[in-house]
Amino acid sequence: MGNNTSRKTITLKCSNREEFEVPEAVAKVSPTIRQIIKDHDCAEGIILLPDNITATTLAKVIEYCAKHASATDASKTEAETETTSKVLSGEDLENWDRQFIDMDPMMLFNLGLAAKYLQIEELADMTIKKIADII
């Protein structure tokens, strides 16, 4: 049953009507999306996002969520199998995060707004800190 859930995909539709099909595990990194899935059962599998989340911004959010979902899955796998190959350490993930938010200020601002709406607190905090560093 757990395998079936991890293979399910969700379609996220952004403000400019572009659709992104993502694994449910990746989409559920966002507490907002996780709650929508829980409350509405997403029979059609499509979640409409607000107007301020464009395709470019959503692509970055998905990239972040995919990396963090795979790091979480990898650490669970590591704990279960006691292997360390292909597993991102906390330090590796922190380095990836620092490189990830190295972008132009407008994109960073839009990413922060999307992260706040989607309740991805760690991403929202990172963008706020980066913007503060720029200012």
Automatic annotation (TrEMBL):
The family database entries (InterPro entries) matched by this protein are listed as: SKP1, SKP1-like, SKP1-like_dim_sf, SKP1/BTB/POZ_sf, Skp1_comp_POZ
State what this protein does: Involved in ubiquitination and subsequent proteasomal degradation of target proteins. Together with CUL1, RBX1 and a F-box protein, it forms a SCF E3 ubiquitin ligase complex. The functional specificity of this complex depends on the type of F-box protein. In the SCF complex, it serves as an adapter that links the F-box protein to CUL1.
Identification of the protein by name: SKP1-like protein
Q: Which domain of life is it from?
A: Eukaryota
Its pathway is: Protein modification; protein ubiquitination
Q: Where is the SKP1 component POZ domain?
A: 8-69
SMART domains to which the protein is assigned, alphabetical: Skp1
